[in-house]
Design brief:
mainly alpha; 10 helices; two-stranded parallel sheet; TIM Barrel
Length: 166
């Protein structure tokens, strides 16, 4: 059992597990080099080789107990055929929210659209560096994702309050 599993199960442990936030890895020079050559963030998340490499970079430098999969919470709207772009110095911009179109997406089509994320998880799982390490995935809460989808940008920028009051 790894330290992370012991913590989750509320066991007494000698060593507390540590891991680095996904965003903190963005400051590593090796990440910045990859990012400088890959301007489209969604395409980078969908490049299973590069996203696997980025996931493992912090573990190559530090003795962390877990790797956090390099991806983004907005892969869900992307998989639902909502356009997702990242604008430099602004953040995410999403296409028009159309519930009728989204409801037509089936599980097979969604899975195909985000298949490269699944491949990255598999690549990371098979990496020898991760022997006796944990892998952490993440996703936004349904409400968070819905607000991004309806708002078509980060709710930190502005919120379309009118939509929520109709």
């Amino acid at each position: 059992m790894t330290p992370l599993h012991e913590v989750i199960l509320n066991k007494n442990i000698r060593k507390k597990p540590i891991w680095i936030m996904r965003q903190a890895g963005r400051y590593l020079p090796e990440f910045r080099e990859i990012r400088s050559k890959n301007k489209d963030f969604i395409k980078l998340c969908l490049n299973s080789d590069l996203s696997s490499e980025i996931t493992i970079q912090p573990l190559k430098r530090f003795d962390f107990d877990a790797a956090i999969i390099f991806s983004d919470i907005l892969m869900l709207p992307y998989g639902l055929n909502q356009n997702v772009e990242f604008k430099k110095n602004f953040g995410p911009i999403l296409g028009k929210f159309n519930l009728n179109e989204i409801s037509k997406i089936n599980e097979i089509d969604f899975t195909k659209k985000v298949q490269k994320v699944y491949e990255a998880i598999k690549n990371v799982s098979n990496n020898i560096i991760l022997k006796n390490k944990n892998i952490i995935g993440f996703v936004g809460a349904p409400w968070t994702i819905l607000v991004y989808m309806i708002n078509q940008q980060s709710p930190k920028k502005t919120t379309k309050k009118r939509f929520f009051s109709e």
